[in-house]
Every structure is written in C-alpha cells, then in structure tokens.
Amino acid sequence: MSQPGSPPRLIVIGIRGKQIAAALLALSAAVVGGWAEFAPRSFYEKFPGFGHHWVSTAGPYDEHLVRDVGGLYLALLIITIWSVLRGEPEMLRMTGAGWLVFNLAHLGFHANHLDGLSTGDKIGQLASLAAAAVLAIVLLLPDRSPP
C-alpha cells in the first residue's frame, strides 16, 4: 500500500502471466473463429451454444458477415499464438492493443443492441466481452522486471 502523497503503485505482470492471458484470448479466438468460419449458419443460429442464441437476435443471417467475423478471429488467433510462443514483451503489447481495439468496439456494439436477449444472456454476453477486454488490458500492463 502506498503512503499518502507517494505516487500510486503500478500493476505489473510477468511475461508468463501475459502469455496465459494471451492463451485465453487465443482459445476464445479459436472457438469463435473456427465456428463462424467453418459452420457459419450454425454459428448464427446457435452461438454461444447450450441453448443460447446471441447472434441471431442481432438481425437476419448474412453468411458473408459471419465468415468475415470468423476470419477476423482466426487472424487474431494467429497473431496471438505467435506472441505467446515468442514471449516478447513488445509483441504481447501489440497483440493486446489489437485485441483491445476490437473488443471495445465489439463490446460497445453489443451493449447497445441487447434487444431479444434474456437478462441472463445480456449478462453473459457483456461479461464475456468485458473479460476479453480485461485480458487485452493485461497484455498492455507494464512488465515485471526479471529478478
């Protein structure tokens, strides 16, 4: 805890922690991207699964749009895996910046288009999108200096 009048302490995280955060983002990109790209109609009708339908409430089916979303997530997947494997701080920050730009726009859209969703689905959708934004922010935090 910082003393009164002293500068606030920065939250720092080590490379391993950032790699774990990035790996979680990669996992989400693989699931969403693979599903949207290779089974677009199923993605539209059934995402996120388990009896919930988050995409179909947003408007009519558009295969082109769904496949574009799949391609975007798969591109993020490749960049994210590369940054995890390299473990370079600058690459992890760049990956975090890309994910954050995407996730804030994605979260903003869905926060303003919740019609047709149950209360539980509204919470689930916004929480999952916010979690991805938080993971992206983790990649932007200052690096812990090696001992």
Core attributes:
two-stranded antiparallel sheet; 147 residues; 5 helices; mainly alpha
Short description:
Helices cover 68% and strands 3% of the residues. With 147 residues, it is mostly helical.
Task: Explain what you see.
The protein is mostly helical. It has a domain at 66-140. It has 5 helices and 2 strands; from the N terminus they run ααββααα. It has helices at residues 15-38, 40-46, 63-86, 89-111, 119-140, and strands at 48-49, 52-53. It has a two-stranded antiparallel ribbon. The longest helix has 24 residues, at 15-38. It is globular, with a radius of gyration of 17 Å. The two termini are 21 Å apart.
Counted by DSSP, the helix tally is 5
Which segments are poorly predicted (pLDDT under 50) over 5 or more consecutive residues?
none
Question: How confident overall, as mean pLDDT?
Answer: 91
Indicate the proportion of strand residues.
Answer: under 5%
Instruction: Tell me the radius of gyration.
Output: 17 Å
Shape, per Cα inertia axes: globular
Mind sketching the topology for me?
Blueprint: H1 15-38, H2 40-46, E1 48-49, E2 52-53, H3 63-86, H4 89-111, H5 119-140
Antiparallel strand pairs: 1-2
